Amino acid sequence: MQWKNNSKDAKICLSLSLDSGGKVKRYEKERLSNDSTYWVLFELIWRDYFRFLSIKYGNSIFHLGGPRKLKLSWSQDQLLFESWRDGRTGYPLIDANMKELSTTGFMSNRGRQIVCSFLVRDMGIDWRMGAEWFETCLLDYDPCSNYGNWTYGAGVGNDPREDRYFSIPKQAQTYDSEGSYVAYWLPELEALPKEKRNFPGHSYIKPVVPLKYGNNNKNIHKDPALAERRTRSQGNKIKGYRR
Asked: Which of 28, 109, 178, 215 does the annotation list as catalytic?
């Protein structure tokens, strides 16, 4: 499976028009049943789950501690947040997804999970700032799904893996191994060899923070300024689960 350029894929508009999994089941019966129809139905079930969750927990899905009412320390470093928001983190996979979001109003489900993980785990930024930016940009914005997913990703919602973490190098190698996705949204990387596009080193802007896990660039950890910024920005120090 390779990362697709979602802005060119009409299937991303399904979330705007499908109201019921019954339509998917009817399509499967009359036309075709495959992995794609399975995942559409799966995500619709998630949507309904978050709607029921919002009924159960009410306004707590908007609170810093989430439905679990956890007392964690989060940063509201505006410069770090803006680098994430504007796609200037120094990590092509993060930056490409954020560029796609601000340009088109869409982002893939996997992209949403990865940029959420980066904001809350690697940057230590208040998850509500990310949720509010998604609310601003997403054409398929739904309050229950948006805040349900962000509380889930930040570890303050219903997730048995309390510190869910997405490794950027692993995700890039698995889903964008040739760098075609990042090169589309970050044209300055197009001239690089395919294997270098997600890991461009000095050919790209400097990373704003080191990764919590799985950093392919060992020199990042030797930069005292980066290390200090991450130490100041990350208040929540709980055990991590990596993907």
From this structure: 109
Helices 92-104 and 127-137 cross at an angle (nearest 10°) of 40
Among residues 3, 74, 133, 185, which one is catalytic? Answer: 74
pTM across the whole model: 0.80
Burial (CB count <10 Å: 0-12, 13-18, 19+), residue 119: buried
Cβ pair 110, 207 in contact under 8 A: no
Known catalytic membership, residue 127: yes
Q: Write out the E strands in the chain.
A: 164-165, 241-242
Contact partners, residue 191, CB within 8 Å, separation at least 6: none
pLDDT tier for residue 162 given thresholds of 50, 70 and 90: low
Q: Among this protein's residues, is 74 annotated catalytic? A: yes
CA angle 170, 199, 208 (to 5 degrees): 95
Query: How far from each other are the two terminal CA atoms of the chain, in whole angstroms?
Result: 16
Mean predicted confidence (pLDDT) in 113-120: 97
Nearest to 94 by CA among 124, 115, 71: 115
Catalytic residue (choose from 84, 133, 150, 185): 150
Q: Known catalytic residue: 109?
A: yes
Judge whether 39 counts as a catalytic residue.
no
Q: What is the pLDDT of residues 61-101, one digit of tens each?
A: 999 999 999 999 999 999 999 999 999 999 999 999 999 99
Residue 229 clears pLDDT 80, i.e. is over it = no
> Looking at 3, 84, 97, 127, which residue is catalytic?
127
